[in-house]
């Protein structure tokens, strides 16, 4: 039977503190029986030399379509640039099934990868000596309901590939979950980390599945699985990703471009939200947190909660002429009505020091600054 060897606690601490000045050492490993999937070759591993792992080598299956926009402000906010700044350009490899614009190529490596292709994923991990895998690829809530079979493939079968590869190669694995992993029978105001989770979307079901499978692999095989449940994420460059929280991004673009916004959720629909920079920082902080500070492997994180009406009022403080109308999308509304209104993230704050920077006024100001400057640049070009 193939054997996977996990690092001792001391070794993990050294990995977690790449800048700690540790001398290159060869680390003792303990062995755990491992057979989540039949592999065609011996998946045993040699002991790890930390001279090779001063920086994690990160594979990111791309987050937010904005990374693929040609927007000039993208460089300040993109996920991959955030990670590349932190870990070094060549240490962060991006992958997606879609062709990226040139600035993605210029800033560091990009690789085509379909997460449904297990062998190809494995080859990328082996050839590039990947140590951390950040797995974002997924179909979101509204688009998932429109194509359940594809959502099941990408979000569940794809996740199985990722889990097996991470376990076989001793990777630290991050998978985002979401407020959508809760459902109408969960407490909604606030929603704690541990409570009933019976979502009514394929997206939510797939995310509960990811949380449980990741935690199972952690306990069964020693996989270093880490997961944050994100609220709706707001960023200036995002294209609609097929989510229920998309309105909170679209309002800024429409407000700047046309002065009008038609909202597809009711004015009093309250949902937890977060600015992208807080989201990316939370992710890196959780990935870097010493393992013994993590009392759980899946945490809620939050920054703010607001309704469309409250968001519109805040935008109108900057753009008083903005006209907002409502034309409700029944599918999205039903989803939103089953999701948390407020998210209790006290465990993340207590365990590894999570703290958000952006509240609603700062979010609005920042979004309007970015989108306004982008549209001024577009007009002069
Ligand atoms: N955007 C948000 O508000 C939130 C996002 N999340 C999570 O963050 C992650 C990323 O979300 P977004 O970037 O907003 O979604 P997105 O829809 O903008 O991007 C998803 C990416 O997955 C890629 N993809 C689809 N099928 C693939 C396949 N077979 N192989 C490889 N790549 C494939 C797409 O090309 C796309 O670039 C998801 O796991 C989502 O659940 C969680 C909560 C909130
Ligand atoms: C909150 C999410 O997970 C996403 N933005 C969606 O609305 O589907």
What would you say this structure looks like, in words?
With 381 residues, the chain is of the alpha/beta class. The protein has a domain at 55-233 and 274-304 and 342-356: Rossmann fold. Helix content is 41%, strand content 16%. The chain has helices at residues 9-16, 74-77, 79-87, 102-107, 118-127, 141-146, 148-168, 202-221, 247-257, 276-288, 308-318, 330-337, 346-352, 360-380; strands spanning 3-7, 29-33, 58-61, 92-96, 110-112, 132-135, 172-174, 177-178, 224-230, 232-234, 260-263, 271-275, 298-300, 304-306, 323-326. The strands form four sheets. Strands 3, 4, 5, 6, 7, 8, 9 and 13 form an eight-stranded parallel β-sheet that branches. The chain has a three-stranded mixed β-sheet with strand order 10-12-14. A two-stranded antiparallel ribbon has the order 1-2. Strand 8, helix 8 and strand 9 (224-230) form a beta-alpha-beta unit. The longest helix is centred in the middle third of the chain and has 21 residues, at 148-168. 44% of the residues are buried. 1,4-dihydronicotinamide adenine dinucleotide (NAI) is lined by residues 61-65, 96-98, 114-116, 136-138, 140, 154, 158, 176, 178, 230, 232-233, 241-243, 245.
